[in-house]
Amino acid sequence: MAFPRVLLVVPLFTTSILGLYFLIQNAPPTDNQCRIKMAIPKSMAELMELNLCLRKHYENNYLYMLLLFSTVYIIKQAFCIPGSVLLNLIAGSLFGSVFGLFLVCTLSSIGVSACYLLSKVCGVETFLMNYFPSALTSSKTTVGNLVKNNEHQLWYLLLVLRIIPITPNWLLNLLAPVFSIPLWTFTYTTFFGLMPYNYICCQSGETLSSINSLEEIFTLKTTLQLTSIAVVMVVVKVASKFCKINT
């Protein structure tokens, strides 16, 4: 019996987590001996505690903090782990909304590219063909024709999918190579498509150290910003009706 390639994700994920653990355990010392915990915050208090600890490391060793944050973000994206909003808030708090936005957009693009390549290496298409042959064949025919007949505006379609969450991002990341979507197009549309969402999170993160609850993040200013993003989404959706799509 052939070894199912999809199981390659286990050693790859394990190696990534061990590398992250090694990086955290070898963090440069801080004045108050703050130790970073390998755990996802489950409350606002835990998020604030983590942010305070990370800020101490940021002030003590900027390059280490940049390396650690980048590593966590890429692993999260590559292996479809939830938690983008928390990392985006922390990015805004540590690096500011401008550089934080550029950083998370770049890391998002790198991470989804890694997920794209993992999907190919680990044989996600073969796995789906073995267990869901009819559904995959039908989907490949439909989506494949859509991609082939709209190569000139594929970037636009992918951008709409990123801005308007019609499908979960993790599912899009895994299935992109299955439907022969070019990696480069997939990467740069991720960078720009996730920018509105990342911007709101990063800007909110700038005030993370001074808030006491999540409700304080959604001020009138951020509410208006979120509303403007929603308006953009509607405009893009309406505009797509005027963009001829060949099926």
TrEMBL record:
Domain VTT: from-to ranges: 81-206
Q: Which InterPro entries match?
A: TM41A/B, VTT_dom
Enumerate the transmembrane spans: 6-24, 62-79, 179-197, 217-236
Q: Quick check: keyword tRNA-binding in the entry?
A: no
Q: Which domain of life is it from?
A: Eukaryota
Q: In the UniProt record, which is one GO cellular component term? A: membrane
**UniProt keywords, alphabetically:** Membrane, Signal, Transmembrane, Transmembrane helix
The answer, when asked if Transmembrane is one of the entry's keywords, is yes
Q: How does it sit in the membrane?
A: Multi-pass membrane protein
Q: Where in the cell is it found?
A: Membrane
Q: Which family does it belong to?
A: Belongs to the TMEM41 family.
Q: State what protein this is by name.
A: VTT domain-containing protein
